[in-house]
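User: Once you have settled down, look closely at the record that follows, taking as long as you need, and be ready to discuss the fold:
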Amino acid sequence: MSERYFVDEPLSPGRVMLGGPEAHHLIHVMRAAAGRRIVLFDGSGAEFPAVVQQVGRSEVELSVAAREEVNRELPAEVTLGVALPKGDRQKWLVEKAVELGVTRIVPLRTERGVAQPVEQALLRLRRAVIEASKQCGRNRLLQIGEPRDWPDFLEEAAGVPCRIVAHPLEKGDRHASPFPAEGLLDAAFLAIGPEGGLTAQEVALAVAAGWQTVDLGPRILRVETAAVLLVAMLVQQFA
């Protein structure tokens, strides 16, 4: 795959000036010179093949040849609500969610949550979305939503047929697959609680609202591992 760079404004064929961190990388890391071919994307779902025309100290002038529609998205919009883990594990979670095709992540405020989704952390995660999109070839950016309290997130998902929360089952319990048949799934809400798990009251509130619980196995998983596993189980429906 060609080198990819993100531009945070709508692109169209013609002259484009690339600045900021993306230009810094192209100039000082990749040592770009006139004639180099790269690919730009603006989050709209398209790619824009471009040629470097001139390299400045902090900006790069490019010529965009065309707009090419390249769709690498899932056939369903997937919203992942998650009580964020601590530190760099947040970035890892976001990177994998981008790679798996998640549409939006909503940081959740729950009773046992350990990391508060402050604005500075969310800004870092939005930058991580761009870097992961460059790497994996997505042309639409995963959205980092505003933090939501657990009851508000449940209410937001009302009416969506596929609503699944990870929660261990009692020993001996069984359940059918929580995922609708292929072709019936055009949107999904998934939820992962904090490291200490959702409280019984929070789970009961979800079940009463029509959410299905799914057990992710007998071992205790970290938040980010559980999130990746649950999303992968959903993505498998489209394989």
Q: What stands out?
A: The longest strand covers residues 46-55. The longest helix spans residues 119-136. The mean pLDDT is 91.
